[in-house]
Amino acid sequence: MAKIKSFIKKLIKKIKKNNRGFSLTELMVSVSIIGSIATLAGAQMDDILPLARDAQRKANIHQVQTALNLYYDDHGQYPITASNEPSVAGWQSIVPILESADQMYVPEMPRDPLDTGEYVFKYWSDGQKFKIAYETEDQTDKSPQIAWGL
User: Fold this and answer.
1) Distance of alpha carbon 150 from alpha carbon 129, whole angstroms
2) Which domain does 81 fall in, by range?
């Protein structure tokens, strides 16, 4: 028992003697490496975020297309607008129709991911077809920025 006790004491002394922390230089190098990695990652995010918002816009438009087709199945026509071209007023006119409590086609009308008013959705319909226009942040995006319903 005494041998075990002395062995444990020697082991504890050895651990305390060899237990040293990081030097200031090691800490500074580690922090600078982590900072460099964070800076590079942040720069990459600036390129990726607009693409992600554009993907969200397209998903939002697809959700509204589905809701409008459900409305058409129930009423035999799409909600009609007063203008002859897609407009913000046309979009605002379908919001209460599609969010209606008695026949809810969407629980909440999708908004632009930035919600700054710069990128807006526009809607037009004559009852038998509809057109939704929107803009993307990526100017090189070749996909159509108009959604049709026939």
Assistant:
1) 5
2) 52-150
Q: What is the pTM of this model?
A: 0.68
Distance CA 3, CA 10 (A): 11
Q: What is the mean pLDDT of residues 99-112?
A: 86
Whether 80 contacts 126, CB under 8 Å: yes
CA 58 to chain centre: 11
Q: Is residue 17 part of a domain?
A: no
What's the rounded Cα separation, in Å, for the pair 148 and 145? 10
In a domain, 13, yes or no: no
Domain count, the chain: 1
